[in-house]
Design a protein that fits this description.
This protein has 140 residues and is an alpha/beta fold. The protein is 44% helix and 21% strand. Residues 1-17 and 136-140 have low confidence and may be disordered.
């Protein structure tokens, strides 16, 4: 299992955890609960952020899986500049299916997976598990 130290910036392994960490960029409290539950089920650390400046702290964490709610006020260009290709390649962006331009913008920024909000909500555990295997964390 992964525990967060004071301030939430550094993960410590305890037991047989994978070391992978899910960082959710969203202001939706319902999503916070479901994503943190899915992360816990998979033995992953979890952190919720609401600003690009908070994402920066986690960019160097091995096995980072960034999940970005496109309905939030996130600046995709700023986020992609901070994260780099490796982090974005493992990242999941999601948003309302009717916000086609926002979904397309996430694809153009290099997000590894872009899905509708409904798909993310229904399949969050599987989506995170897939990122662990494909994204280079040590959870196999």
């Amino acid at each position: 299992m992964v525990f967060w130290t004071g301030g939430g910036g550094v993960a410590e392994l305890a037991g047989g955890g994978s070391g992978a960490v899910v960082v959710l960029y969203s202001t939706d409290l319902m999503l916070l609960s479901s994503v943190s539950g899915a992360a816990a089920m998979l033995g992953l650390g979890f952190r919720s952020v609401r600003a690009v400046s908070e994402v920066v702290v986690h960019v160097g964490v091995p096995g980072l899986i960034l999940c970005v709610d496109l309905a939030s006020s996130v600046d995709l260009a700023e986020l992609s500049g901070v994260c780099g290709d490796a982090v974005l390649g493992r990242a999941i962006a999601f948003g309302p299916h009717v916000h086609v331009a926002r979904l397309d913008a996430a694809r153009a920024c290099g997000f590894g997976q872009v899905v509708s909000r409904g798909q993310f909500a229904m399949q969050v555990t599987q989506l995170l598990a897939d990122r662990c295997v494909r994204g280079g964390s040590n959870l196999h």
